[in-house]
Amino acid sequence: MNHLDPFPGPMVAAVRAASRICRRVQAELGESDSIEKDDRSPVTVADLAGQALVARRLCDAFPHLPLVGEEDSGDLRRRPALLERVVACVRTEWTAAAEAAVLEAIDLGSEEGGPEGRYFTVDPIDGTKGFLRGDQYAVALALVENGAPAIGVLGCPNLAHPDGSQGLVLLAVRGRGTRVLPLDGEGADGGSAPCAVSDLEDSEAIRMCESVEAAHTAQGESAVVAKELGIMARPVRIDSQAKYAVLALGGAELYLRIPTNPRRREKIWDHAAGSIVVTEAGGAVTDLDGVPLDFGRGRTLSINRGIVATNGRVHDKVLRALRGLRG
């Protein structure tokens, strides 16, 4: 028995349950269902309900493992009407949930991570602005082991499954590849199929994904890199770690994230699940300098600058183009 075998089933089940909450909320989203955090980023009923649910399920299954989560309950405790809606959402999947238990579950995500041992990291809605627009978002959960992702689960309710149905889950286990599952399914194996990155090597034919939000990536610099590579197609702008999913499924060859602020460092929950989903599908993920992502430095990728994810075959070409950008 592999030491990772107990984890995929509960992790996939938690992501599916959180994804069901997100679909319900997105379908009925109202103006009062979101608030603005101190950093001016939005958080919704679904972010908070999703983290509570995932945290509770992981705590029940693996009570001794810490969780690094994006959200906390601080604002929620001061907004009783919003708390009432969050608890109602949680109860669609956790029927006995009480207010105190929901708040406690959200705050289970307050851990800091670190270089040794195991911890989970979750982003209950990666791409909240896309979620609010009715576009792409992802429920992202990873198990990090000694500073590197060991398992990644991405739920993408608005991405098309290869069979044409709406919604999918990608499951990557270190050394075992990446598989695609239906969003509405049972177990970590039922209905799953292996997926792989594209085998394209011609840089001119690269299909590039980048963030919709201009604040997330330096789109002008990305355009310079694309020109250097001879890329003909315009970039596909898509929210969230759904970009990693598209890459892992062979629908693109490059995801580029060039920070607009040189001091900006990425949060671990924004890349842990997506990065292993791509690498186990045969791709490559580094920072802009070709340095592997280090998830053992706390809540941020503090030694890494930006993100380059590719199908692997064009990775070196992209890094050379980036070196030219720096002069």
Walkthrough of the structure:
The chain is α+β, with helices and mostly antiparallel strands and 327 residues long. Helices cover 32% and strands 22% of the residues. The protein has 10 helices and 14 strands. The protein has helices spanning 8-27, 45-61, 74-77, 80-91, 99-106, 128-133, 219-229, 242-248, 272-280, 315-326, and strands at residues 34-36, 42-44, 67-69, 118-126, 138-145, 148-160, 166-173, 177-182, 193-195, 208-210, 236-237, 254-257, 284-286, 307-310. The longest helix has 20 residues, at 8-27. The radius of gyration is 19 Å and the shape is globular.
Question: Looking at CATH, which topology of the largest domain would you report?
Answer: Fructose-1,6-Bisphosphatase, Chain A, domain 1
How many distinct beta strands?
Answer: 14
Helix count from the secondary structure assignment: 10
User: Which architecture of the largest domain does the CATH hierarchy give at level 2?
Assistant: 2-Layer Sandwich
Key terms:
327 residues; alpha+beta; single chain; 2 domains; D-Maltodextrin-Binding Protein, domain 2
SSE layout:
Layout: H1 8-27, E1 34-36, E2 42-44, H2 45-61, E3 67-69, H3 74-77, H4 80-91, H5 99-106, E4 118-126, H6 128-133, E5 138-145, E6 148-160, E7 166-173, E8 177-182, E9 193-195, E10 208-210, H7 219-229, E11 236-237, H8 242-248, E12 254-257, H9 272-280, E13 284-286, E14 307-310, H10 315-326
Parallel strand pairs: 3-4, 10-11, 10-12
Antiparallel strand pairs: 1-2, 4-5, 5-6, 6-7, 7-8, 8-9, 12-14, 13-14
Helix pairs in contact: 1-2, 2-4, 2-5, 7-10, 8-9
